[in-house]
Amino acid sequence: MTNQGHIFKGIIAIVIASFLWGTTGTAASYAHNVSSLGIGAFSTGVGGLLLALFAHRRIQLDYKRLLAQPMLILLGSACVAIYPLAFYNAMRFSGVAIGTIISIASAPFFSVLLERLISKKYISLHWVISFIIGAVGIVFLAMGKSHENSSLNNYLLQNMGVLLGLLAGLTYAGYSWAAKHLIEKGVHSQSSVAVQFGIAALFLLPSLWFTGENIFSTMMNTSVVIYMAFAPMFLGYLLFGFGLKSIDASRATLITLIEPLVATLLAIYIVGEKFKMIGWVGMGLVLLCLLLQTIPFNFNRQKTATVSTPLMREY
Questions:
Q1: Residue 296 belongs to what domain range?
Q2: Per the structure, how many domains does the chain have?
Q3: Mean pLDDT, the chain, as a whole number?
């Protein structure tokens, strides 16, 4: 298969994962009297165990390469453990749409910083243009949120949600960078994702003793947390790991801008959050950003086709 074919498959996998992730905020809103910490710990913890069990044979094959990168794995695992706690609380404080928007919109920026400062990777003009369009779209989305109650307390809570969203974006980018770096070291994508989530699960699941009250108190609560553990977490990150085999972490996190778009639409039509016209303009810009990332701009196809890369080998 050509490099372009691998890249296209990677993009499609991450797009599907982003759709699944975009449902998490709306799904979480149906879990009543359950803390954001409990939802995050259960969904990521159980999803992490499923990922580790699914990829256990690959982990066994890659264990020598994994043992050679202990600090990288610990960094990625810490990011995985922190991300859901920050992400779900960001949505709790500032709303499903805004919490998701800030968390995901900031991830490409942090991802580029990591790849540029640590991995010394070149950032293309195509990516910069896409990022600017996507960033403006995200800002417009945030500005488009209508507030029926503009009290000081709500204002402070929304700012707290923004800060937690930025923390979520940083840890999301950190996990993506660590996973991509492990893949570049010869670790299979399944092993790269599963080992980080498996280790994070060892820390998250015990925390349910303090944060998991009412998770199974009703059928609705049980259904929500099981869905979030199996669909967005297990299947979503399995697809994301597959996508990271063929595209850079910065491009992968930029494509996931589709997640806040899906989350916003669900927040409007299902949760009942309201947006102004500028918010709809922002959605259009995010779609344009995704289009620019999906359509290849390769003006030297013949030369590129002769370039081999270890990430394009068959797994």
A1: 3-312
A2: 1
A3: 81
